[in-house]
From TrEMBL:
<dbReference type="InterPro" id="IPR003439">
    <property type="entry name" value="ABC_transporter-like_ATP-bd"/>
</dbReference>
<keyword id="KW-0813">Transport</keyword>
<feature type="domain" description="ABC transporter">
    <location>
        <begin position="6"/>
        <end position="250"/>
    </location>
</feature>
<protein>
    <submittedName>
        <fullName>Amino acid ABC transporter ATP-binding protein, PAAT family</fullName>
    </submittedName>
</protein>
<keyword id="KW-0067">ATP-binding</keyword>
<dbReference type="InterPro" id="IPR030679">
    <property type="entry name" value="ABC_ATPase_HisP-typ"/>
</dbReference>
<dbReference type="InterPro" id="IPR027417">
    <property type="entry name" value="P-loop_NTPase"/>
</dbReference>
<dbReference type="Pfam" id="PF00005">
    <property type="entry name" value="ABC_tran"/>
</dbReference>
<dbReference type="InterPro" id="IPR017871">
    <property type="entry name" value="ABC_transporter-like_CS"/>
</dbReference>
<dbReference type="GO" id="GO:0005524">
    <property type="term" value="F:ATP binding"/>
</dbReference>
<dbReference type="InterPro" id="IPR050086">
    <property type="entry name" value="MetN_ABC_transporter-like"/>
</dbReference>
<dbReference type="GO" id="GO:0016887">
    <property type="term" value="F:ATP hydrolysis activity"/>
</dbReference>
<comment type="similarity">
    <text>Belongs to the ABC transporter superfamily.</text>
</comment>
<dbReference type="InterPro" id="IPR003593">
    <property type="entry name" value="AAA+_ATPase"/>
</dbReference>
<dbReference type="GO" id="GO:0015424">
    <property type="term" value="F:ABC-type amino acid transporter activity"/>
</dbReference>
<keyword id="KW-0547">Nucleotide-binding</keyword>
């Protein structure tokens, strides 16, 4: 059987006495879109940060297309890679944050081209061409010269998605990408994410948008107290959850809508 495109095995992460990830395993096939849902503080963001080694797990391992993140293909498994190489590996994994995290003093174009030039070694002309294509794709052609503060939250998040795509990632991680947006701006970001999913991007999405989870995800994973307690197709997990914690969470959400 071929190994999964992404595999996170038995990830553990503690902060002092607090266990944020308590042995999390998750596999994803190429092109799969997995929505991670769960209560605030259950460890969903920590999972994303451990997967791309922004915050290395205490134990467990992550592999993307067979390559162990933080260690590298063919490297002795007991020897971690230098930070520079981990950064290069991380470039294969795009991340979109809740608060966009654009550089405020850079224009949209500068935000998009700096990392591909520094990490991928693209010339300014190559990076600019790629950036213009991606801005077109997220519906922001013509805004190259704008500064982040001149854009709406939805536009800034679309720039952040384009910025991540500029690195030609093989896996995209989204950490509550619409939570900081006014409700009327959520749809434009979800639309960009949907088209990315339709193009076959492998995506792990922490979200409170149940419509996105129901309509776009291939699988939903419910997270509780540092563990995935239930995973399955959206129709199964969202409509007939088996675990009492999932049932309680979804009932709470339904009541608040
Ligand atoms: N750098 C850190 N130092 C100490 N504690 C942390 C750190 N990062 C996360 N935690 C703790 O780990 C727990 C899980 O946090 P995490 O952000 O992963 O949860 P979450 O499920 O993503 O929640 P939310 O939906 O609110 O973002 C929280 O209780 C948080 O306080």
């Amino acid at each position: 059987m071929p190994s999964p495109f992404v595999s996170a095995s038995n990830l553990r992460k503690t902060y002092g006495d607090f266990t944020a990830l308590d042995g999390v395993s998750l596999s994803m096939d190429r092109g799969e879109v997995v929505a991670v849902i769960g209560a605030s503080g259950s460890g969903k963001s920590t999972l994303l940060r451990c997967i791309n080694y922004l915050d290395p797990p205490d134990s467990g391992e992550v592999r993307v297309d067979g390559v162990r993140i933080g260690y590298g293909e063919g490297a002795r498994e007991d020897r971690a890679l230098p930070e520079r190489d981990i950064r290069r590996q991380r470039a294969e994994i795009g991340m979109v944050f809740q608060h966009f995290n654009l550089f405020p003093h850079f224009t949209v174009l500068q935000n998009l081209i700096e990392a591909p030039m520094a990490v991928r070694g693209l010339s300014r002309a190559e990076a600019t061409e790629r950036a213009r294509d991606l801005l077109n794709r997220v519906g922001l052609s013509g805004r190259e010269g704008a500064f982040p503060a001149e854009l709406s939250g939805g536009q800034q998040q679309r720039v952040a998605i384009a910025r991540a795509l500029c690195m030609k990632p093989r896996l995209m991680l989204f950490d509550e990408p619409t939570s900081a947006l006014d409700p009327e701006l959520v749809g434009e970001v979800i639309a960009v994410m949907r088209s990315l999913a339709e193009e076959g991007m492998t995506m792990l999405v922490v979200t409170h948008e149940m419509d996105f989870a129901a309509q776009t995800a291939s699988r939903v994973a419910f997270f509780d107290a540092g563990k995935i307690v239930e995973t399955g197709p959206p129709a199964q997990v969202l409509r007939s959850p088996q675990h009492p914690r999932t049932q309680a969470f979804l009932q709470r959400i339904l009541r608040s809508h």
